[in-house]
Design a protein that fits this description.
The protein has twelve helices and no strands. By secondary structure, it is an all-alpha fold. The protein has one domain. The radius of gyration is 18 Å and the shape is globular.
Amino acid sequence: MWVIYAFGSSFFAGITAILAKIGIKNVDSNLATALRTILILIFSWIIVFMTGAVKTLCLIDLKTMLFLILSGLATGMSWLCYFKALQLADVNKVTPIDKSSTILTMILAILFLGEEITLLKIISIILIGSGTYLMIEKKEESKQTIRKTWLIYALLSALFASLTSILAKIGIENIDSNLATAIRTIVVLLMAWIVVFVTKKQDEIKSINKKNMKFILLSGLTTGLSWLLYYKALQQGQAGIVAPIDKLSIVFTIAFSYFVLKEKLNKKSFLGLIEILIGTFILLL
């Protein structure tokens, strides 16, 4: 069942990238992140009360709470970096780099969680790594500084995303996954709004038009669904396998970016996508 949860998480995560890309046009990326997290927080706590998981809140020990907070901080950093990169570059350029966090997640899971290293995992890491490299189009940009900036943000997003998976895996061992998601979201929300107020972007809320606000909130809704399914899968399955399946969201992202945003893949990028898919499915063996 956890495999189904992981694929469901992948689908909604893929849609999120497109909705967010449309929503953050002409909107500060940090402010957009803070706004969408409000909806995610509401959504996640509704699920907690509906499932009765709130009753176990008082049973959380200090170690679990610590790792949930740390994973929330890592998630917040990943989001802030990801949506900043998404604002500066095309979805098809940012997403492959962000999804490369799969490789680091598998390596960290082997080193710190004691997950088994196998020949298939090694082959998978090689395929996903080379596929990601092929998907990073090297185009000449009108401004060299902008090119370097989005790449740095995308790489940081991947780094923090991989840390999130490992920290969350430890943090949800003895806690309902829905409750864990809700607690982590509180951390992300606080972090996002602190950044907004520090950068003095809170007054820009008034200037956001209805279309942008709608897509920002929709991206928050799909993120909430993706999170709930992802951490449910992470609670039942191996982090080194759940994370790669979740990263298949790149397929949905690219498909929607082609039809909605009119972004196209060249032959090299398409080959890279195929390698990522093969590498991911190998893990399921």
